[in-house]
Amino acid sequence: MSEKIATRAAYGKALAELADQYPELVVLDADLSGSTQSQYFAKAHPDRFYNMGIAEANMTVVAAGLATCGKKPFTNTFAMFAAGRAYEQVRNSVAYPRLNVKIVGSHGGLSVGEDGATHQCIEDYALMRAIPNMMVVSPCDGPEMRLAVKALLDYDGPAYLRLGRLAVESVTDETPGYSFQLGKGALLRDGTDVTVIATGMMVQMACEAAKILAEEGISVRVIDMHTIKPLDGEMVLKAALETRCIVTSEEHTVLGGLGSAVAEFVAEHCPVPVVRHGVNDVFGRSGEAKAVLEAYGLTSAGIVERVRQALKLKK
Amino acid sequence: MEQSKVHALAVMAARARLLALDMVYGAASGHIGGSLSSMDIVTTLYGHVMRVDPAQPRDPDRDRFVLSKGHCTPALYPNLALKGYFPVEELKLFRSIKGEMSGHAEMRHVKGVDMSTGSLGQGISAAVGMALAGKADNKDYRVYTLLGDGEIEEGQVWEAAMSAAKFHLDNLCAIVDVNGLQIDGPTAQVMPSEPLDKKFEAFNWNVIHVDGHDFNALGEAFEAAAACKGKSTVLLAKTVKGKGVSFMEGDYGWHGKAPNAEQYEKAHAELAATLAELEGK
User: Fold this and answer.
1) Is A89 within 8 Å of chain B by CB?
2) Domain residues for A104?
3) Which of A106, A223, B13, B77 is the 20 to 30 Å CA partner of A13?
4) Domains in chain B: how many in total?
5) Which residues pair with A189 in a beta bridge?
6) How far apart are CA B205 and CA B199, in angstroms?
7) Residues of B with CB below 8 A from A67's CB?
8) Adjacent-strand bridge partners of B64
């Protein structure tokens, strides 16, 4: 197992490293560059870094203006403010005119921990997914994040990218045949009894859950759905047809995010049980990150429980 | 400004006012009051100030205009048509499902529009972004953005103003269409925003007061803005809402209302008479 790294750290380093290759790349931050990790880019390329102060609405639309002039702006702040506070700016000034702005939301989900509910954004996938033209991406580990940043630089259009706060193990770099493509899920582990479709940090927990269940003779397929929109319908359909039940897992409310996207697709194309694992329509609370995740059942044990539920529903 | 230029602008603005009236009447909706108040400003920009070529609407070196008060498309679209970006006939599809002339400014389908706007307070931020890009690329284009005096109640306007000052965007010029009225009534009552000059000065902007219906004064103000180094400039343009149509002038009821047939005839007759007089007919 490789060294643990937070996806935000991998993101920050990738931005700085890719700067020379992409001269149009410019980075904006709302006074959180130490947390969002845009600091590496800021240090290496101060002439292409704009600290916009604590003013996310303005930052988002300034980025839109930069994009009309051929720049490739990445805006940085916490997910709460990127997708929440500046929602309407993203919708009307970025997505509607289809401008090439990447909205980067760091510290997504409950794992902000101690800061508590006001900073624990559990609605960002839902908010961003509901906007036409938007792509929604949530990589699970450092190597995948690096590939995602590069792919997003090559993608000409609006996108939301979620970064995680906690250091996580890499699961993609040791997966044979792994490759990254926006809009295509990655099969991390094959299985025949049930499929767990996870995103972000829940992918690692899905892999752990699969190992636990394997000991009981339950064969779990694990899909890393780094792109929540557009959803890889082909991969979901195949899972529905072959394993006949699905569990989704995300560090996000069960309303409107990955679970909803998968359930909507499955209901229309191949109805089989879909059990959603995530935050159950409640706000988070303060606590050490791991303790908060445990309090809300966002653990491999939580996934195991959902898998048992799905298997019971399976016909 | 030469007298012939002033006259040419007056004629262009008079034509644009007639087109704006036709657009709003034809669509049976739209924002005529603020479009008529800001018409002379937009005409001065497209008819005299801005370095633009309708044959190359995406020229990277062109001057930019962002209609931050994005509902005033009846001021922008006619000027774009008269400038030659698209045929005047296309204005007939304003707000119609049959065309792409959307109610608020839209950059993907309407040639010459530099930024999609409509949600108030956002256009000025986009203009800041364009000005930043100009500085980063060492380009000499200028960026203009038109705001309403009601619009500046949006907090984002002041976030944008702060950032323009931070980056010393002297290639950015904002114009506030100070007609003193917003949808619900006089701005002084709905949300008092005066003193505007002191507010912008406190945000470290260069402030110029100007009569928003005086082409000569507008021309000079834009020249002074271009000459000001190290700071963004704001023109506080005193205007009359509904300018040019006697019964619309100074009446906030005409903010977003279309005239009926009788009102249209009366307004048309007044605007046509103004144009005829200018053309010496």
Assistant:
1) yes
2) 5-168
3) A223
4) 1
5) A222
6) 9
7) 129
8) B143
